Amino acid sequence: MEKWLNQLKNGFNQIKTAFFEQRSGAAISPFKAILGTLILTGLFVMMLPLIMLIFMVQMGLILVGMVAVLFMGTRKRSGQWPREEKLVNPKPESAETDREGEIGG
Fold first, then answer.
1. Is the pTM of the predicted complex or chain greater than 0.70?
2. All residues at 6 or more sequence positions from 72 whose CB lies less than 8 Å from its CB, including other chains
3. Tens digit of pLDDT for each residue in 25-49?
4. How many domains does the chain have?
5. Can you give the residue range of the structural domain that contains 45?
6. Is 89 buried (19+), middle (13-18) or exposed (0-12) by CB count in 10 A?
7. Is 27 part of a structural domain of the chain?
8. To 10 degrees, what angle do helices 30-78 and 2-20 make?
9. Is residue 44 within 8 Å of 50, Cβ to Cβ?
């Protein structure tokens, strides 16, 4: 029983040494690594509402753009589009440089 208690004490001492003492061979102590991880996680959790807000604004802008495009399409079809020019000319006029009879008849 006493042997087991000594082993348990040695184990706790080794854990304490690993966490709180910087040995020459180690690049960073586990205590500092855990602390840094907790700080970075906390920063990320604090930034989550801002990230969500940015994504919500993006989605809102996309939806507004889609509604605007749909509205433009319905207005164009109903003939309410202001100053609409005909994009397709049924009788194309010959260019000034064309001589008669050369192109199209």
1. no
2. 81
3. 667 778 888 999 999 999 999 999 9
4. 1
5. 2-78
6. exposed
7. yes
8. 60
9. no
